[in-house]
Design brief:
157 residues, alpha+beta, four-stranded antiparallel sheet, 3 helices, 17% strand
């Protein structure tokens, strides 16, 4: 599935998780944790918006029952492998997305305090583009901290 414009005739669209994590650590070292979080969430949001547009889903406001499958197809094993998207549901005014294996959490030790930023932003950006709303993004539960999933919570602004 191609949902971008990256063209490399020999290497293709994908790169190493090790290289992504090295880039993430470099951004954190340069900007500090708070600055890096802002930058990585924003970069993810931009990617999510682009993915929704490339798939023709921007502004379509699809039913929540379809959003999980759509996001998993784009970001999961059949897509860019950013994270698996298992569930999307509404709780009050918040949208909850349950994910597995988000890229930012790969290789982290149990009980790691790391917050997933890029995957969180990408999922949030795709939701924003599809639903025509802006959200505050938060990574709440984590598999590394005993959760059953890495839970992303999106609250309307």
């Amino acid at each position: 599935m191609s949902i971008g414009d990256a063209v490399r005739p020999n290497l293709g669209e994908f790169m190493s998780l090790v290289c992504f994590k090295a880039a993430l650590r470099g951004v954190e070292d340069t900007l500090g944790d708070d600055g890096a979080n802002v930058v990585m969430v924003r970069a993810g949001k931009m990617r999510g918006h682009d993915v929704a547009k490339a798939l023709g889903l921007a502004g379509t406001n699809p039913p929540f029952e379809q959003i999980a499958a759509t996001l998993d197809a784009a970001f999961g094993a059949a897509g860019t492998r950013l994270c698996r998207v298992e569930k999307v549901y509404v709780d009050g005014d918040q949208i909850i997305v349950e994910t597995q294996e988000p890229v930012c959490m790969a290789g982290e030790a149990p009980d790691s305090s790391r917050q997933c930023t890029y995957s969180l932003g990408a999922v949030g950006g795709a939701l924003e583009a599809m639903l025509g709303k802006t959200f505050r993004c938060e990574h709440t539960d984590s598999v590394l901290r005993g959760g059953s999933s890495d839970k992303f919570v999106f609250s309307p602004l």
